[in-house]
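G., the chain you wanted modeled:
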Amino acid sequence: MRKPNDLSRRERQILDVIYEMESASVKDVQNALADGSSESTIRTLLGILVAKGVLKKEASGLKFMYFPVVAKEKASLQALENVVATFFDKKPSLAVRSLLEMKKGKIPAEEIAEIEALLESKKSNK
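Predicted structure as tokens:
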């Protein structure tokens, strides 16, 4: 599978729709995008994503359904690893700092507790 940053903005939008729906037909993608794209344009882009190894397609009656090749969780981890490598000197701590600063100190107590629990679990897994 190619990396998410190997995809055009439009391909990424379509992939996001399919991740959200878990599987989708050409018409499903067209309806979700709701931007006036023709079915043939969507079909062409889905074909490109299949050729790139990002999606697979399976016949379902008279139409094809498209599915992600990689589970969303794995794809999001790969994307995050790429972001950390590219923008944060391969240092997760710098990425975490930026994420915490994004909220400008407005992180709900339950999210802070969840973050602390995750950190504790990482410490004990060493």
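Residues 114 and 120 are 10 Å apart (CA to CA).

Shout if anything looks off.
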